[in-house]
Design a protein that fits this description.
132 residues; mainly alpha
């Protein structure tokens, strides 16, 4: 008799998305260094990291559990991850503007928004290859 085998779902490939965001940050930092100098590139780096660090935290925290027996833990981890991401984003914005005010706010917010928009690539970067 054939025994049913539980489905083995693979974890999302969130590292690809995080690496894509790091690549965008690097491109913006290098471009701003060439065009405007070190202060602008440092502002761009800060803006990119303010977006990237909470995303990395969310990815680490949200995908800790897997499988139907952990359904409750999965839901809890997503809520906690989202709350932590929100708090971390607020803390990082506050920390940047209090401790190290960006010398070029346009590059700071430009890098933040560009890194944030990279999430739109998520469905493409996170898709699983077809088994056929």
């Amino acid at each position: 008799m054939h025994h049913p085998v539980p489905a083995r779902l693979k974890r999302p490939r969130f590292m690809r998305l995080l690496l894509a965001q790091l690549a965008i940050i690097l491109i913006i930092v290098v471009t701003s260094a060439v065009l405007m100098g070190g202060k602008a590139s440092f502002s761009a780096l800060l803006g990119g990291l303010v977006c990237w660090l909470p995303n990395a935290y969310f990815s680490w925290r949200a995908f800790r559990y897997q499988g139907a027996q952990f359904a409750r833990d999965i839901v809890k981890s997503f809520y906690r991850a989202e709350a932590g991401k929100f708090v971390l984003t607020a803390v990082l914005f506050t920390l940047v503007f209090v401790a190290v005010p960006p010398s070029n706010p346009a590059f700071f917010f430009g890098a933040y928004v560009a890194t944030l928009f990279t999430q739109w690539l998520g469905p493409w970067l996170l898709r699983q290859p077809s088994p056929t």
